[in-house]
Design goal:
The chain is built from ten helices and eleven strands. It is an alpha+beta fold and 341 residues long.
Length: 341
């Protein structure tokens, strides 16, 4: 539970920090456990001034005590106008997080936190999607020169990256909640084809050549189609991202009587041996001169690991500096595609 709580705190902090609206996070006793930068500005304080305290302990949060009490009572996100005439029209959201430590209410609390995170994701997705739509309209409203088209494409990819981060945070919250998979008969080869199709534009922009090597008869297993496609997309996207000089990225699937193995191979910058044991840890990022300008949350590989392990499988990585990398996973299958226990 301690690890789960640590992940929840980190995920929540990363998520609310990107929301333009002021957000306070409180525990189930109404004690403030964190706030985002927008809340710091709106309330004219620092998070350190109020973290760990009840709202009455600080004059700038004392007016929020009733609102926080209502949020704790209902267990639902609460949004109200800031009780401060200097911020007319501004609102603040209060989220209730699960209590730390073992509790028979923990699964229910984590489920409630997941619901609240979904609401925050909605808050983030709307402005990002709107901005992307306006960029998509640029070429439709008139001619643009080569440089303008290049800038528009960069902006579009940046917004897509932001949406990807939002979905990663939600995926992490889903894993932390212990939610069940939605199992059905699915073809991993078809999921791989869809994942590569969705990344074609990104690969073209990065001058990466995508290829697919899969059995013609397909690879059917019982799994969560959406989650597995997300895991594949994550691995291929990483391979593209860490191939700064372009080059090939190859997705290979092989099946035996008992297992299906998926490999994503690249010839990118590679990874030093000391980093490999930590790559699937949440928020872990390799910090080198070669990776400094590569954006990422450090969540993608841990999400892949979580999804694969929920399917009873294992992840693996093979890499060396300057020689590229292979990331992948192996999933168990049974004859007839019966559900994995």
């Amino acid at each position: 539970m301690t690890t789960l709580r640590t992940l929840s705190d980190k995920t929540l902090a990363a998520l609310i920090d990107g929301v333009p609206e002021a957000v306070l996070a409180v525990d189930e006793e109404g004690r403030i456990v964190g706030c985002n930068r927008a809340a710091e500005a709106a309330l004219d304080l620092l998070a350190a001034d109020i973290t760990g305290h009840l709202p009455a302990a600080h004059p700038h949060t004392a007016p929020l005590a009733d609102m926080i009490r209502r949020a704790v009572t209902t267990g639902q996100p609460t949004r109200e106008p800031l009780p401060n005439s200097g911020h007319a029209g501004h609102t603040i959201m209060v989220l209730v997080t699960p209590a730390a430590g073992p509790s028979h209410h923990a699964p229910r609390s984590m489920s409630r936190l997941l619901d609240q995170m979904r609401e925050i994701v909605h808050e983030l997705k709307l402005p990002i999607s709107s901005a992307k739509s306006f960029i998509d309209l640029i070429e439709a409203t008139g001619e643009v020169n080569t440089q303008q088209a290049k800038w528009a494409e960069r902006a579009r990819l940046s917004l897509i990256s932001m949406l990807s981060l939002v979905h990663e945070l939600l995926d992490m919250a889903w894993l932390e909640s212990g939610a069940a998979l939605t199992l059905q008969s699915t073809d991993l080869c078809q999921l791989a084809e869809r994942a590569l199709a969705g990344l074609e534009n990104y690969a073209h922009y990065r001058e990466v050549d995508l290829s697919l090597d899969i059995p013609p008869e397909g690879c059917t297993l019982h799994g969560d189609e959406s989650r597995l496609e997300g895991a594949i997309t994550n691995l291929v996207s990483n391979a593209i991202k860490y191939s700064p000089d372009g080059g090939p990225v190859r997705l290979v699937i092989r099946r035996t009587a008992d297992t299906i193995t998926l490999r994503v191979e690249d010839r990118g910058i590679g990874i030093a041996p000391e980093h490999i044991p930590h790559l699937f840890q949440p928020f872990y990022r390799v910090q080198t001169a070669a990776t400094r300008r590569i954006e990422g949350s450090g969540l993608g590989l841990s999400i892949v690991k979580g999804i694969v392990e929920k399917h009873g499988g294992t992840v693996f990585v093979e890499s060396a500096p300057g020689e590229g990398s292979v990331f992948g996973f192996t999933l168990p299958v049974t004859n007839g595609g019966t559900p994995i226990a």
